[in-house]
Every structure is written in structure tokens, then in C-alpha cells.
Amino acid sequence: QVQLVESGGGLVQAGGSLRLSCAGSGRTFSRDPMGWFRQAPGKEREFVAVISWSGGSIYYGDSAKGRFTISRDNAKNTVYLQMNSLKPEDTAVYYCAADPEGNYRDYEAYAYWGQGTQVTVSS
What we know:
The chain is mainly beta. It has strands at about 5, 10-15, 20-25, 35-40, 45-50, 60, 70-75, 80-85, 90-100, 110-115, 115-120. The strands form 2 sheets. Strands 2, 4, 5, 6, 9, 10 and 11 form a 7-stranded mixed beta sheet that branches. β4 (about 35-40) and β5 (about 45-50) form a beta hairpin.
């Protein structure tokens, strides 16, 4: 059974930091781009960041630029999202995804998804 499992979400005050992890199992993702999306209540799923299989190419959504950092450890089949200077508007369920075909900013391009982890930023 192929799975992506996120962890590291929680409640943090504005200005604080969190580090999300997403561990894959059931297959290796070491040759796949992996990404992070988020979805706030009543809003569409939003692209946050994507990283190529080698880590050599990284792209961020506008909301993440300058504050979030995506990284991966292929030996652990895991992708990370370090989030700094968090704002209340970052409150959302954060999802990791893998193996996109086509536009990596489009959530429909991804073949595999985690169940999500809640991030809540208080003001």
C-alpha cells in the first residue's frame, strides 16, 4: 500500500515556526518531484512548493517565498517543509503530494497524496 504521511502540524503563534514532514512508504519516491499544498476552509487547494527528485530545482508559491523552505531526504523517502515567520493567513490543512504529470502547480497533476496535517497560526 502506497502512502504519504504528514506530521509536524500544530498550533503556533504568529511569527513562529513549524517543520512539516512527509514520509513515503510502499514505494520509493526518490525519483519523483514532491510538493506541498495547503487548503484553508472555503478556499481552493493552493500550491506551496515543489522540489525535484534531486533537489536541484525548487519552486515556491507566492505565499511561501522568503518564508518557507522545502527539502528532501531520499534515503528516508521524506520531504520537509520548514515554515518560518508564520502568519494567521497560513492557517490551513497542509498536504504533501508526489509524482506530478504536467503543471506541478496544479494539484490535479499529482498521483499521490497524504491525508494532511493541520497548521493553525494564532494572532
